[in-house]
Amino acid sequence: MSSSHSTVPASRIIQPARSFRGSLALPGDKSISHRYAMLAGFASGTSRFSNFSTGADPHSSLACMEAMGAKVETEGRTIAVTGTGGKLSQPDSDLNCGNSGSTMRMLAGLVAAQQGTFRFTGDESLTARPMERIRKPLESMGAKIALVNGHAPMTVIGSELQGIEFDSPIASAQVKTAVLFAGLQASGSTSIAEPVRTRDHSEHALRAFGAELQRRDDRLHMMGGQTLQAIDATVPGDMSSAAFFLCASLLFEDSNLVLDALGMNPTRASLLDVITAMGGNIKMLDVQEQHGEMIGTIQVNRGRGGLRGIDISGQLSAQLIDELPVIAAIAPFTAGGVRIRDAKELRVKESDRIALVVKNLRAMGAEVTEHEDGLDVPGGQRLHGGTVDSGMDHRIAMAFSIAALRAEGDTEIHGAEASSISFPEFFTYLDELAVR
Ligand code: S3P
Q: Which residue CA neighbors atom 15 of ligand 1 most closely?
């Protein structure tokens, strides 16, 4: 099972397109796949997942669970995970999280109450990302965690945990999840409040695997000492992968895009409101629920109106954090420009996404102003083809491949293969959907 992507930069040339049309079902959501991999590995029994993410990151989570005693088998397009019945074993070697912050942060919570020593490593990007945010709450529950200057390599020594009342200072679903996974195994109750409501896949997944948790007075409450049982599930298509194609469909007047079996969890679907505000027409064709997650089919086109600008700040920035790079990348083509604020977290993602968006927009000839917590991109601009540096960040590689569809001339994306972290099929689908 691959746990990290190749580090050899490969370039891709993206040619301009005339339109963007077609229909597809996207591979499973990265965030949900991580949680299903971890909870299935922890639960009793065999879980089966269809449409599990094809991205390298959730496969890092699967590999870590395997290293701690879970059994992972691929049955055609289904992944079967036989869990450890709540008892993870100490791995023989380091748990390699590759490029995946979700794997490292959420697993820290899952192993904190287990017996043994668990050492986590990752690639160059991951070992530069902040980990204090999980060490603090987990240590206040009794966990023992060692970091190097606030970063991985991270060593967790399993300990007995007590529940806590945690008021998270950061809007982070990964931090919330680490505390929930630890609270599940702690003595007493745990409650969590967040500054902004972040994606709630962990809450749905925990309930699906049989845990009880409640939301009261804007806090999550759960009792410790709960056990989990295996489930069967279909992972909904990834909205954050869909974002690239949704934004591409905004770039052309006669676009038409149909996305089947797409995850539409309300904590992930703010992008649909943004697409509408920017001039897209969205039709929901069918919506169903499975294990608390909404799955539906949508049809999107831009229609005759122009592409409008937008201001994004506050709670919306936190909820759109993974989609902001592609929204910024298409901003020059809007009439009114795009202003993004309250998005400082972008600086500590797989790369400094504010700095790289600014650098690459300029490389394609756009005017842009950088702010500590966002950026301003004036509208009514033209882009020329240029050389884009992905910084080996999947979302930067894909965001600028979309901007390149409306550039004058070809664009070269350096480090294009980083897309395999969340969406290995991206360039194949892009070629199918772009009308040239
Ligand atoms: C994720 C949460 C977000 C997001 C990441 C996936 C998750 O990170 O950027 O891609 O699955 O919980 P933070 O928790 O750091 O905001």
A: 172
- Over the stretch 190-237, which tens digit does the pLDDT of each residue have? 999 999 999 999 999 999 999 999 999 899 999 999 999 999 999 999
Rounded Cα–Cα distance for residues 376 and 232 (Å): 45
Q: Looking at the whole model, is its pTM more than 0.90?
A: yes
Residue intervals of the chain classified under CATH 3.65.10.10 are 11-28+236-435, 30-233
Q: Is the CB of 360 under 6 A from ligand 1?
A: no
Structure tokens at 52: 């599990």
Domain 30-233 is found in CATH 3.65.10.10: yes
Task: Report residue 386: phi and psi, to 5°.
Answer: -160, -170
What gap in Å lies between CA 200 and CA 180, rounded to an integer?
A: 11
322 is a catalytic site residue: yes
Dihedral, CA atoms, 295, 307, 338, 130, nearest 10 degrees? 30
Three-class SS state of 153: strand
DSSP string computed for 203-244: HHHHHHTT--EEEETTEEEEESS---B--EEEPPB-HHHHHH
| Strand-pair partners of 223 | 189
CB 63 within 8 A of CB 86: no
Q: CA–CA distance from 60 to each of 92, 170, 199, 313 (Å)?
A: 16, 25, 21, 32
Class of CATH domain 11-28+236-435: alpha beta
Find, among 226, 158, 160, 220, the residue nearest to 192 by Cα: 220
Q: Is 329 helix (H, G, I), strand (E, B) or coil?
A: helix
- Phi and psi dihedrals of 389, rounded to 5? -105, 115
pLDDT tens track for 356-402: 999 999 999 999 999 999 999 999 999 999 999 999 999 999 999 99
Cα 67 to Cα 141, 340, 436: the distances in Å are 25, 41, 46
Collapsing DSSP to helix, strand or coil, 190 comes out as: strand
Closest C-alpha residue for ligand 1 atom 13: 172
The reply to whether ligand 1 has any atom less than 6 angstroms from the CB of 96 is no
